[in-house]
From TrEMBL:
GO molecular function, one term: calmodulin binding
Membrane-spanning intervals of the chain: 25-45, 71-91, 163-184, 290-309, 371-394, 414-435
Protein name (Swiss-Prot/TrEMBL): MLO-like protein
InterPro entries hit by this protein: Mlo (IPR004326)
Family as reported in the entry's similarity comment: Belongs to the MLO family.
Membrane topology: Multi-pass membrane protein
Organism: Ensete ventricosum (Abyssinian banana)
Main location as per UniProt: membrane
Length: 517
């Protein structure tokens, strides 16, 4: 009788997990809360997008669209895991296959604990904030089907659920860390605005300095950066570049010299060109590439999870990868500035007028400054992966979980993660923003809406000067006037785009200087 009652209670408990035996008010309440939260988040993102568009922050708006795409991808991954969780659990594998490459060492079970060992494949760990629960449906057809064959499921329902949580935490952490890096780095770059303002006030006439002959070593830029000629000097210059990234990575003399080199190369006819504004605009355009998770980053996630084997301490050694890359990247960016000074000091003993450096792609790895952006993207993602994995393990399985590893491995990982975040924000990102402008080409971000409006106005003035015939045509109707302006702008953009791509200084200077007149 007692067994019958116990069986009836178990059957009732199992039936309560089904939707058809769940009270409608519970279903309605849960759905209402989920829908409400989703709508609030969607409206907030929509409102943020409208604010960015109203403030003419097109690059940041495109970055927000990239975040929405990532959220949509996360939703699609979650949907696939949910839809196919039954099929995944229905895949049966021999138990012997599960004894290899385990993240935790499994104790050898005896006959009395054989059933407890089987539970390892049916449920996740019980400790932690999200632990301490079991999916009753897990004892359904999938697990029973494999148990009859003497096998175990490929992946338990609880493991699939935890995989849901990890992917979500990883994506949110990456986006949050990317935004934090841009905000902190932007605050550092904003401090250079005072240098730009002081330079603008000192510019008179055509912006060139008096024709005065000055010895090269009298320039502060050369004194700070040039380390001599020879093999020993090369080693010293690299060591100096390595140390320089930790303090005073960019000085006023560096900014002034690189600004003048950029203007003399790409827009010589406009000495009052706002280099700081252009640099910020270019950085915002690059932000949309950093905030996303590309396909090759997902490949790295799979590889890292594959190598998380007990005793290998994979995540401890993996924490050094972004740190080493970040230090190498900062050293290279500093050395590019040193190379600019080296070129001038080796070719000239004295200079008439201003010290002008020559931007070139030859200073960068494989002659491609764009590689630096991909490396920063990988570094930020790898660091976010480390931090996300730590918090996921901590909240799911607890601090004492075997996956967490020993304390002597955990503390260095956290210290390295914080160091990477701060160093990338306050040193590497500002260096990237200014040093990558020393390439042979300048970015299309310079061609923003304000410049386009200036070109339209300039084109209309030119048409009016050509004679009454064109003026009468332009004055026939407002619609024709708008059409003519758009056509003229499109022609100009098409004609100037190749020059922008090739970085021709004459064309660039002409493009920028004409609207100003």
């Amino acid at each position: 009788m007692a067994m019958a009652e116990g069986g009836g209670e178990s059957s009732a408990a199992a039936s309560e997990m089904k939707l058809e035996f769940t009270p409608t008010w519970i279903v309605a309440a849960v759905c209402s809360i989920i829908v409400f939260i989703s709508l609030v988040v969607e409206r907030l993102l929509h409102r943020l997008g409208k604010v960015l568009k109203r403030k003419n922050q097109k690059p940041l708006f495109e970055a927000l669209q990239k975040v929405k795409e990532e959220l949509m991808l996360l939703g699609f991954i979650s949907l696939l895991l949910t839809v196919f969780q039954g099929a995944i659990q229905g895949i049966c594998i021999p138990k012997g296959w599960t004894l290899y490459m385990l993240p935790c060492k499994e104790e050898e079970p005896d006959d009395a604990h054989g059933a407890a060992a089987e539970a390892h494949f049916q449920s996740a760990f019980s400790a932690g904030l999200f632990g301490g629960r079991r999916l009753l449906s897990e004892s359904g057809s999938g697990a029973a089907h494999c148990s009859i064959k003497g096998k175990v499921p490929l992946l338990s329902l609880e493991a699939i659920h935890q995989l849901h949580i990890f992917i979500f935490v990883l994506a949110i952490t990456h986006v949050a860390f990317s935004v934090l890096t841009i905000l902190l780095g932007g605050a550092k770059i904003h401090q250079w605005k005072q240098w730009e303002d002081s330079i603008q006030k000192q510019i008179t006439g055509d912006g060139t300095a008096p024709k005065q002959v000055t010895r090269v070593h009298q320039f502060e830029f050369i004194r700070d950066r040039f380390r001599g000629i020879g093999a020993i000097s090369v080693v010293i210059s690299w060591l100096h570049s390595f140390v320089k990234q930790f303090f005073g990575s960019v000085t006023k003399s560096d900014y002034t010299t690189m600004r003048l080199g950029f203007i003399m190369t790409h827009c010589k006819g406009n000495p009052k060109f706002d280099f700081h504004k252009y640099m910020i605009r270019a950085l915002e355009a690059d932000f949309k590439k950093v905030v996303g998770i590309s396909w090759y980053l997902w490949v790295f996630v799979v590889i890292f999870m594959l190598l998380n084997v007990n005793g290998w301490h994979t995540y401890f050694w993996m924490a050094f990868i972004p740190l080493i890359l970040l230090l190498a990247l900062g050293t290279k960016l500093e050395h590019v500035i040193t190379q600019l000074a080296q070129e001038v000091a080796e070719k000239h003993s004295a200079i008439e007028g201003d010290l002008v450096v020559k931007p070139s792609d030859d200073h960068f790895w494989f002659h491609r400054p764009q590689i630096i952006l991909y490396l920063i993207h990988f570094i930020l993602f790898q660091n976010a992966f480390e931090i996300a994995f730590f918090f996921w393990i901590f909240t799911t399985y607890g601090f004492n979980s075997c996956i967490m590893d020993r304390v002597c491995f955990i503390v260095p990982r956290l210290v390295i993660g914080v160091t990477i975040q701060l160093l990338c924000s306050y040193s590497t990102l500002p260096l990237y923003a200014i040093v990558t402008q020393m390439g042979s080409h300048f970015k299309k971000a310079i061609f923003d809406e304000h410049v386009q409006e200036g070109l339209v106005g300039w084109a209309e003035k030119v048409k009016k000067r050509k004679g009454p015939r064109i003026s009468n045509v332009l004055a026939t109707s407002h619609a024709q006037n708008e059409t003519t302006s758009k056509v003229e702008l499109s022609k100009m953009v098409v004609q100037t785009t190749p020059a922008m791509e090739e970085g021709r200084s004459g064309s660039a200077g002409e493009i920028v200087s004409r609207p100003a007149t």
